[in-house]
């Protein structure tokens, strides 16, 4: 596999900026803006159970992308109740299998960045079959530069994932 940046070269390495300490509070943290997930600002869930909700993205380029959120407002893996930590592996496997069932998907990549909202959520991104230049960490960069599809198309693909759960 040959990972390739979605930009023409040569790129120029830049120096990192000054450290910002303390860091600004994230959404859903004390002193920060309210949590969008708890506040009902997220896209409607296409699937849910007693622990999790599954959502389509907006403004995206890859149909089949979904994100999974805990029902409880907890920040990261280490903040989740133990039974949810264990259940995450089970539900993540179901989401992966459901995305693969769409067809035309080589791999399903999971991203838990932890720099956005402070409400546990994990992204599932399908790498299109044969798109080897978008392997590994290149996939979210390619996702960013590829032309967006409509939010309706993203939601429809997410509903197909949900029906395969
Ligand atoms: Zn929340």
Walk me through this protein's architecture.
- The chain has three helices and five strands; from the N terminus they run βββαββαα.
- With 165 residues, it is an alpha+beta fold.
- Zinc ion (ZN) is lined by residues 28, 35, 37-38, 73, 119.
- The site of zinc ion has 6 residues, from loops.
Structure in a nutshell:
Helix content is 24%, strand content 16%. The chain has helices spanning 82-100, 138-145, 151-163; strands at 47-48, 52-55, 66-70, 105-111, 121-128.
Averaging pLDDT over every residue, what do you get?
96
Q: Which series of helices and strands comes N to C?
A: EEEHEEHH
What is the straight-line distance between the termini?
Answer: 30 Å
Structural class: alpha+beta
The gross shape turns out to be globular
Topology, number of strands: 5
Number of helices: 3
Helix content: 10-25%
Main sheet: which strands, in order across?
A: 1-2-3-5-4
Major beta-sheet overview: 5 strands, antiparallel
Compile the SSE list and pairings.
Layout: E1 47-48, E2 52-55, E3 66-70, H1 82-100, E4 105-111, E5 121-128, H2 138-145, H3 151-163
Antiparallel strand pairs: 1-2, 2-3, 3-5, 4-5
Supply the key terms.
single chain, 165 residues, alpha+beta, five-stranded antiparallel beta sheet, binds zinc ion
């Amino acid at each position: 596999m040959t990972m390739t940046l979605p930009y023409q070269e040569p790129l120029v390495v830049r120096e990192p900026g000054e450290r910002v300490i303390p860091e600004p509070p994230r959404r859903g943290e004390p002193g920060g803006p309210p949590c969008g997930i708890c506040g009902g600002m997220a896209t409607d869930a296409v699937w849910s159970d007693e622990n999790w909700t599954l959502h389509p993205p907006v403004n995206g380029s890859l149909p089949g992308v979904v994100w999974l959120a805990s029902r409880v407002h907890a920040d990261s893996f280490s903040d989740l109740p133990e039974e949810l930590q264990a259940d995450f592996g089970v539900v993540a496997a179901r989401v992966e299998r459901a995305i693969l069932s769409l067809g035309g998907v080589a791999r399903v990549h999971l991203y838990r960045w932890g720099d956005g909202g402070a409400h546990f959520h994990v992204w599932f991104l399908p790498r299109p079959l044969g798109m080897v230049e978008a392997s590994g960490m290149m996939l979210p960069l390619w996702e960013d530069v590829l032309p967006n599809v409509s939010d309706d198309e993203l939601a429809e693909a997410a509903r197909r994932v949900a029906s395969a759960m």
